[in-house]
Amino acid sequence: MARQAILVAARRSPVAPRGGVLKALEVDALAAPVLTACLDDAGLDGAVVDEVIVGNALYGGGNPARRLALLAGLLESVPALTIDRQCCSGLDAILMAARLIESGAADCVLAGGVESFSRAPLRLSRPRGPDEAPRPYDRPPFTPWPERDPEMADAAAALAAHAGIGVETQLAYAVECHARACAARETGRLTAELVESAGLSWDAFARALSLATGRRSRVIAGEGESRILTATTAVEADAAAFVCVVSDRFAAARSITAGCRLIGGASAGADPELPGLAPVAAGHKVFAATGLRAQRMAAAEVMEAYAVQAMACARELDLPAASLNRGGGALARGHPIGASGAILAVRLFHELRGEPSGALGFAAIASAGGLGTATILQRLAD
């Protein structure tokens, strides 16, 4: 009988904009308390962990997964792996953990993502010869063709034109996102998932955004109806998010009944010039593999790197409007690249904890280069 992957705990740090409250924390210090909280929530000792898998895009190498695992007090014998699929990395790490579980190669894996824009190294291209100087750059190329490797804001503007989603519609979405995030903070909706970090116990960026304020925000790409504003763009941010994934046999042996079953997950490639639509391909792939329909999703967490991206993906996937980003999305939190997909999974886990047994939830995220990852979780009975 095939093994099933069960998420038995899910935690995250608050998200803070680059240069904010979390700016002094290296990624291991940011992530280690979140790993510890996951184990505590699951009632597990670090000795049972078979693997740690961490998504990270900006830290500059060095396998930060190993550093944070050791700082969290895990045994030196526990291996740790860092993966990079840019924005998809945190969710990919969780799917990789599930596949290890399902294959029988592991019974308990800590997986997620961490990113610090604040501590990311400065980047220089090495000179090719003695007559060249080191050249600073912000990001590596994501395709081999410069003409098909747009800046993400330019790609969002192209998506707005492609999807016919105007700037006023984007702004209205952003205003509602901030309102949901503020309401979630005030009602304590997010309390169970958050681990205090550097004295911060809530997402720092959410605010009472108005249409008037949004209209005054700076244009960063596009023109006319398809322009992209800072108010409709997620800010660069710092955060960590992790889940504890175990096999159903492991859970049964320890009488663990609460959590979410990972029903399916998929990654897909799409047009690099419209990377924001890549989650649509991944979503269709996972729905086809599981035989489930989008309309059955009680909760959905879709990445909001840009308002237009989330809106276009939700529309193309036919997700129920009432299920989408109910506690606010990345527009009201920020976008800590390697952690963002894991934050979606943590949010989905906790949203489903408020639903009846058997309720289904969906999460999806896009990545530069035209890549997308999606997953479906199902709430278990307590």
From TrEMBL:
Note whether Transferase occurs among the keywords: yes
Organism domain of life: Bacteria
Name the residue ranges with Basic and acidic residues bias: 128-138
Q: InterPro entries of this UniProt entry?
A: Ig-like_dom (IPR007110), Thiolase (IPR002155), Thiolase-like (IPR016039), Thiolase_C (IPR020617), Thiolase_CS (IPR020613), Thiolase_N (IPR020616)
User: Which keywords describe this protein according to UniProt?
Assistant: Acyltransferase, Transferase
Q: Which Pfam family, an example, fits this chain?
A: Thiolase_N
Q: Could you tell me which residue ranges the Ig-like domain spans?
A: 150-257
GO molecular function list? acetyl-CoA C-acyltransferase activity
Signal peptide as annotated in the record: none
Keyword S-adenosyl-L-methionine carried by entry: no
Q: Where is this region: Disordered?
A: 122-148
Q: Which family does it belong to?
A: Belongs to the thiolase-like superfamily. Thiolase family.
Q: What is this protein called?
A: Thiolase family protein
Species the sequence originates in = Stappia taiwanensis
What lineage is this protein's organism placed in? Bacteria, Pseudomonadati, Pseudomonadota, Alphaproteobacteria, Hyphomicrobiales
